């Protein structure tokens, strides 16, 4: 089950379409869907989590806590809307496209993809692109 929670003024307009797409992404990776909670917040909220739980004193766009058990993926994914907006501007893309990238990025981590090495990051970007394209096909 995919849930959307809000700790900021931001509200996701197309929750049902996004949840359907993310479920399809999970299925396309031969995983089963557990409980996934997206928490939309601001920089201050996410920075506090980054410092308190990960000991990282930096801003970030996403932090995920993975509760995957076997083939059933699940967890909490915190998304800073401020970072997503800044990243969209930095990468010259729309806010909607960057948000989809961040949302699917968390799910792909749960599916086992990493992004610490250059090789892993290249595969992650390729998978993000592949899964974002699925959204356009389904809608």
Describe the structure.
The structure is a single chain. With 139 residues, the protein is of the alpha/beta class. The protein has one domain: 3-Layer(aba) Sandwich (Collagenase (Catalytic Domain)). 53% of the residues lie in helices and 21% in strands. The protein contains five helices and four strands. Strands 1-2-4-3 form a four-stranded mixed β-sheet, sandwiched between helices. Helix 1 links the parallel strand 1 and strand 2.
Alpha plus pi helix count: 5
The share of residues in extended strands comes to 15-25%
The radius of gyration computed from the alpha-carbon positions, rounded to a whole number of angstroms, is 14 Å
* CATH third-tier fold name: Collagenase (Catalytic Domain)
Largest sheet: 4 strands, mixed
Q: Between the first and last Cα atoms, what is the distance in angstroms?
A: 20 Å
* Topology as a string of helices (H) and strands (E): EHEHEEHHH
Q: Considering DSSP H and I runs of 4 or more, what fraction of the residues is helical?
A: 40-55%
Mean pLDDT: 93
Structural class call reads alpha/beta
> How many structural domains can be distinguished in the coordinates?
1
Give the CATH superfamily. Metalloproteases ("zincins"), catalytic domain
Q: What is the class in the CATH system?
A: Alpha Beta
Subcellular location: Cytoplasm
Protein name: Endoribonuclease YbeY
Family: Belongs to the endoribonuclease YbeY family.
Pfam family, one: YbeY
């Amino acid at each position: 089950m995919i849930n959307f929670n809000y700790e900021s003024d931001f509200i996701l307009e197309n929750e049902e379409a996004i949840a359907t797409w993310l479920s399809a992404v999970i299925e396309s990776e031969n995983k089963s869907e557990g409980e996934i909670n997206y928490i939309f917040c601001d920089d201050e909220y996410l920075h506090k989590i980054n410092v308190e739980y990960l000991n990282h004193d930096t801003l970030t766009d996403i932090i995920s806590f993975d509760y995957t058990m076997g083939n059933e993926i699940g967890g909490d994914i915190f998304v800073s809307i401020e970072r997503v907006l800044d990243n969209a501007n930095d990468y010259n893309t729309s806010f909607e496209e960057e948000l989809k990238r961040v949302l699917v990025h968390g799910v792909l981590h749960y599916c086992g993809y990493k992004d610490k090495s250059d090789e892993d990051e290249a595969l992650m970007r390729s998978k993000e692109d592949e899964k974002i394209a699925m959204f356009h096909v389904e809608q």
